[in-house]
Fold this protein.
Amino acid sequence: MEKLNYYLVVVVIYFAVSVWLRLPAKMAIMVGLMLFTLATIIYAATMSELSNKFAIVAFYFLAAGVFLYLIEHLREYRRKGSGDKKDRD
């Protein structure tokens, strides 16, 4: 069995807290983009193993951001949908 990927655990915890506290999905996307930028700078300094780790974590944050945007969209759709039913009655 492979070693547990602690980076993924951190992102999953961040995702759960973001859903619970209704944090904006922009924050996860912003962190992901900053980590990708940092990964390219580290790669330029010829530390490719560390750069790969940063790129993987950045991808996790970007994926979490996409799912958070989906959840935001569904919440907004549900909120607008419930308002329309009251207007029709």
Q: What stands out?
A: The chain has three helices and no strands. Residues 17 and 23 are 8 Å apart (CA to CA). The mean pLDDT is 84. Helices lie at 6-21, 25-44, 48-88.
